[in-house]
Amino acid sequence: MARKNDINYFNAFIELAEYSCQAANLLNEIMNNFKADELQDRMKEMHAIEHTGDEARHMMIKKLAKEFITPIEREDIMALADSIDEVTDTIEDVLLCLYMYNVSYVREQALKMTEIVVKCCNTLKKVLNEFHNYRKSQTLHGLIVEINHLEEEADKLFTEAIRQVFVSCKDVIEIIAWEKIYNYLEKCCDTCENVSNLIESVTLKNS
Predict the structure, then answer these.
(1) Is 108 within the bounds of a domain?
(2) φ, ψ at 156 (rounded to 5°)
(3) What is the pLDDT of residue 6?
(4) At 76, which CATH number?
(5) Angle 156-162-163 (CA atoms, 0-180°, nearest 5)?
(6) N or C: lower Cβ tally within 10 Å for the chain?
(7) What is the pTM of this model?
(8) 107 in the Ramachandran plot: left (φ > 0), alpha (ψ -120 to 50) or beta?
(9) Distance between CA atoms of residues 78 and 86, nearest Å
(10) Residue 1, domain member (yes or no)
(11) Do residues 158 and 113 touch, judged by C-beta distance below 8 A?
(12) 165 contact partners, CB below 8 Å, separation of at least 6
């Protein structure tokens, strides 16, 4: 029988991914209804999500330190918790860049990339919902492949977005700002793919 204080690590991973989804949805809302003068308040909303995710991760690691038996290796639990947390952190970094570089409008490619970030996070949550059943799941592999395809789509958008910035912008500061923002948007998708790659590695190791 499970003890009262036992933790279900697979559910804990889903919880961490939920914070990533919340952060992605908030970023998408901010980008599509962009108001520069509201960024400071929206940053507080974003940081509240990121901070709550951090607390959930710390709680998981605290429990892990006391566990005698774990469903997968401790190192893999740590790596997954850290990599999911990085997704949320990177989404927050996009918003910080918008504020730090005093961005006054959002470019069309940034909206498209943000949509992909949302899709990546939602698909990652689906992956983690299937993760507990990795030995029998009929959909886990396909969902991991879907994240890979989304990351490739983000890479293509990133290339075209950077090119357009250099073609259309004459202001060096604006170029620097958007290059940084696009880099973080692309990194959001990379971090989602990193989580899915870790999950794939864990499933192979334990199958």
Answers:
(1) yes
(2) -65, -45
(3) 59
(4) 1.20.58.220
(5) 90
(6) N
(7) 0.94
(8) beta
(9) 12
(10) no
(11) yes
(12) 107, 174, 175, 178, 179, 182
Cα angle 7, 59, 75 (rounded to 5 degrees) comes to 75
Residue among 188, 182, 177 nearest 36 (CA): 177
Predicted confidence at residue 70, as pLDDT, reads 87
Give the position of tokens 């059943």. 133
Cα–Cα distance list, 116 to 13, 132, 175 (Å) = 21, 25, 22
Distance of CA 81 to the CA centre of its chain: 12
> Residue 137: CA atoms inside 13 Å, Cβ hemisphere, count?
19
| Cα–Cα distance measured from residue 207 to residue 201, given in angstroms and rounded to the nearest whole number | 10
Q: What total of structural domains would you count in the chain?
A: 1
Residue type, 186: E
At 138, phi and psi to the nearest 5? -95, -5
3 in a structural domain: no
Specify the long-range contacts of residues 51-59, CB closer than 8 Å, at least 24 apart. 52/19, 53/16, 53/19, 53/20, 53/23, 53/85, 53/88, 54/85, 56/12, 56/15, 56/16, 56/19, 57/16, 57/81, 57/82, 57/84, 57/85
pLDDT along the chain (207 residues), means of 10: 63 97 98 96 97 95 86 93 97 97 95 98 97 92 97 97 94 94 98 97 89
The pair of three-digit structure tokens given for residue 64, joined into one six-digit string: 């892990």
> Is there a domain that residue 4 lies in?
no
